[in-house]
Amino acid sequence: MQWIRKKVGHEKIILVHAGGCIFNDQGEILLQRRGDCNMWGFPGGALELGETPEMAAVREVKEETGLDVKVGKLIGVYTDTDAICPNGDKYQSVCIAYELSVIGGELYCDNSETLELKYFPINYTPELFCKQHEEMLEDIKSIL
Fold it and tell me: Which residues are known catalytic residues?
């Protein structure tokens, strides 16, 4: 991502993100308090060249939570045409969200991307950092 920004500066680009929703045995959803904005959201991140959305979701969740996951059903695809990063970078975001099942690993957050990880009851979540994650949460509630 940095090499793209070196070429285009803060100009608008399209970014594709993948991630999703992890439930615990009590039916609570896992949220990540993000290091870039200190707000909550679902784990996930940008695709790298050569990755499928499913591969990116697995990689990003591992990096951000320590959990190994298996990709399940598609929850939805969400777009924000006018997103802006805290540093002023502009982009159009396409977020692809999946149901994710934990198959291994241990929950941890020891990097700057993730400040905290916590399971929340689905009807009692904190404010999420972007409208795409809010829309995803509403879709998850509607399919339960």
Answer: 116
Domain count of the fold of the chain: 1
12-32 pLDDT tens trace: 889 999 999 999 999 999 999
Do the domain assignments include residue 127? no
Query: Per the domain annotation, does 87 fall within a domain?
Result: yes
Q: Determine, yes or no, domain membership for 137.
A: no
Residues 6+ apart with CB under 8 A from 109: 32, 64, 65, 66, 115, 116, 117
Tokens of 117: 């990880």
Q: Residue 106's domain is classified under what CATH number?
A: 3.90.79.10
DSSP 21-43: EEB-TTSPEEEEEETTTS-EE-S
Question: Are the C-beta atoms of 101 and 72 separated by less than 8 Å?
Answer: yes
| Domain extent for 47 | 2-122
Question: Over the chain, what is the mean pLDDT?
Answer: 92
Please check whether residue 36 lies inside any domain of the structure.
yes
Name the residue type at position 84: I
| pLDDT digits 0-9 by tens, 115-135 | 999 999 999 999 998 889 999
Rounded CA separation 6/26 (Å): 45
